[in-house]
Specification:
The structure is a single chain. The longest helix is centred in the middle third of the chain and has 20 residues. The strands form 4 sheets. Strands 1, 8, 9, 10, 11, 12 and 13 form a 7-stranded antiparallel β-sheet that branches. A 5-stranded mixed β-sheet has the order 14-16-15-17-18, with helices on both faces. Helices cover 36% and strands 26% of the residues. The chain is of the alpha+beta class and 373 residues long. The protein contains 11 helices and 18 strands. Strand 8 and strand 9 form a beta hairpin. It is globular and about 60 Å long. The protein has 3 domains: 72 residues, 2-Layer Sandwich (Dna Ligase, domain 1); 118 residues, D-amino Acid Aminotransferase, Chain A, domain 1, CATH 3.30.470.20; 136 residues, Rossmann fold.
Length: 373
Amino acid sequence: MGDRKLKFFEYKAKEIFKREGIPVPENYLALNEKEVHKAAEKINKPVALKSQVLVGGRGKAGGIKFADNPQDAGNIAKELFGMDIKGETVNKVLVEEKINVQSEFYLSVVMDRSAKKPLVMASTEGGVDIEEVARKTPDKIVKYHVNPLDEFMPYEAREIALKMGIPNQMISKMSGFIIKLFKVFKNYDASIAEINPLVLTPEGLIAADAKLEIDDDALWRHKEFVNLEETQKNEFAYVTLDGNIAVIGNGAGLTLTGMDMINLYSGKPATFLDIGGGASQQNIARAINLVISEPNVKVIFLNVLGGITRADDVANGVIDVLNSAESKVPLVIRLTGTNEEEGQRILTEAGISFETSMEAAAKKAVEICESLE
């Protein structure tokens, strides 16, 4: 059906990448403004200050800043610590050498559940939302399935690099990066290992960003990560599926019933996500952001019967996400229960439609999904 994932902050993912031979910029983790200043002094060059959060879109949210010297770095860091980015508070900042970018690429290895094989994806369109590239110019993404029973060979990595259409003199180095990233994916039982962007500098290729998620079921093989505070705790009961309508509910029974309704109207659920009985505004926002990040999700069905969870908190959480989300995924809301009049008023004033009937909301979600195909 799906898996639970252990997400790493960028700084930890870069530590792992570096350990496996993937070049990363010089960087230091800082927990306050004074440590930012010291790190910038060590680097002794212009720096990037990167908020460490486990949600996408931090750059657009103002979570990445640049500084020319240590004094500026310390001052600018004051704007970052304590910042709220999509429901996450910034309490760690990665201070990193600012890179001289000549061009950007995208590189990832993900588990393709439908094919039951690892999928290598590479593109010359790096540094941007890869889902947007896939939607607008799918021909710019090279996709290559790897047989999990065979060894991933250098000639396969070279074939991927060739298909990217990069200059001949870069093919050997790019294929080397592909091999190393695949090694990380395999050795760490990852569900995704991603570099976006992979940057060409005068010194060569370097991983400017790093994303790594590990399958929870494989943690017994990676005991060094079991007690890491830096990894994301599983605050939701969350399973990914093969469909394209994300189902979120407050309670396992309600979520499963919502999924049944989607199936009844010939739709296919993409997720089971139970936010629990007492979800806050921040929980709602995180849950929606979580399913938006799933590449196959076309529509979100939010099925809430307010008991402990208040309808006005749900409404405010929805508005938070819609205001900040990079991907504009259609959202269908069924909202009744505690404080329902206030929650419905908040949605109405924001111009967001809702249903009070689960059947009507599920049917609408399927209709919207079908219209997008």
